[in-house]
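Input set for joint prediction.
Command: fold jointly, output tokens.
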Amino acid sequence: MSVAERIRADFPILNQTVNGRPLVYLDNAATTQKPRQVIEAVARYYETSNANVHRAIHTLGERATEQYEGARERVARFVGARDAREVVFTRNATEALNLVAYAWGLRRLGPGDEIVTTLMEHHSNFVPWQQVAEARGARLRVAAPEPDGTLDLERLAGLFTERTRLVAVTHASNVLGTINPVDEIARRAHEAGALVVVDGAQSAPHMPVDVAALGCDFFAFSGHKMLGPTGIGVLWGRRELLEAMEPFLYGGDMIAGVRLEGADWNEVPYKFEAGTPNIAGAIGLAAAIDYLEAVGMENVHAHEQRLTAYARRWLEEVGGIEIYGPRGERSGLLSFNLAGIHPHDVATVLNEEGVAIRAGHHCAQPLMDWLEVPATNRASFYIYNTEADVDRLAAALVKTKEFFGNVVR
Amino acid sequence: MSLDELYQEVIMDHYARPRNKGRLEHPDIDRELANPVCGDVIRVQVALDGGRVGDVRFSGKGCSISQASASMMTELIKGRTLDEARGLIERFLAMMKGEPGDYGALRDLQALQGVSRYPVRIKCATLAWHVLEGGLPAAAADAAAADAGGAAAADAVPVEGGGAAAAADADGAAAADANGATAPGKRKIHGSPER
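tokens >
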């Protein structure tokens, strides 16, 4: 058995047919499947340790707390955080980015301040800043990519002024596959006196990430895009920044003390985790990280590079397909359009062939407008995908072209 | 269900050769909606003629299902009274919900019946109908005031770099939505012309 086949065997969901064909799952940028090890970790927690965390004076409560905090330390090591207290558990990357928007942006930005972002952001790293800018009278400046889908560092940095307070940028584009030079962007942003928030939803699952090396101030990602459960995400933030920030949600667990006249906040990260958190989700995420690190993040990245290059060659071979985003190193996805055939029609035909891809605007409408398309197809790969999966994708695309061939204008 | 059943010949024919596609110069009803799932936009324009649909056009980009549905819709409602048009909309939406019944009145559009078994595609088929549906009551009340389109909404936030022009001022009020009205199904009506 090859490595990919051994990995595949850990994913029960992949062992099924869709419309009579073995499932080929190529929608990993939306969410990934879960290995048995993650499913079992979640089940084991509920079967052996379930209790509320942090204050219970009983054995299960201690066990749950230990596992939940253990998961936090696991996440901290995974992203190179110097301190587990810099890891805030959220629902997902979207909530993590909103946390920064609410707890930092709305409170620290004022009229005339500037936020710089890019046209390749997912809505979750665009709309919060649009809203903060509107609420605070700040100015949102948006950098477009180069024609090849990369960001030009000089052009981006050219937008930085003495009023720039925040730079919000994605580490890897969920449409173009572009991997942005976050370390360079952070250095330039810091020179301009701005903070840097990074959307890592499409990078943390696919390549080694070290927040210290990146030099950013906030880094957000989602568990479900990296083999973990849905409903668990992470905001990493520099501790001194988190400590100076006000809470985002109020309630239980986030307070140190409450009086009739007011309340004091718990220490970081707890002041950002009001209410009972997703304990099982955090534990599942830690199991997912264990799984990924056993494979090795460098290997994950290399595997996806190979598959993406293989898929690109196939798509070019099929012909009549426009592929978006840069050549060379990129994250493990390809967005494309078949000439004259709408992505919805493509995805429907592919689904009949048992091949799951995504068709739509990928929550990146400003980028769709820039590409001058209403939508694209997107095939995205992960550790369990093989060249055989790509072959099935290519065969299904050939069939799509044949099916629509006589009506394509 | 096979692909041939979903993509019946009449659907592919309307997709390849859409009827009544284009613009009217003086529409009484002019309305546009986006499908939030894919970002497709369809605009429907109606010119009234003594309480009937005198002329009708649709425009916009979309998949085969949405384009064919819009095309067949325009053919079906041309010459109908507004009440008849409302009745046909009701029948079509019922068919897309998979409700059993006689849909003979929908003629060629019955070919879209299979779409009701593809939940994610139903919105493709119903988009043009929701555009028309939202336009009709205003038309009945006051045809002259039914003009809902035309106002071009400029992007409030300029895009910088990438060869684009230099920045203009934009202070965050990035409302790309010109009239802000909400249509049935809580979709926004976009005031901007076709993209």
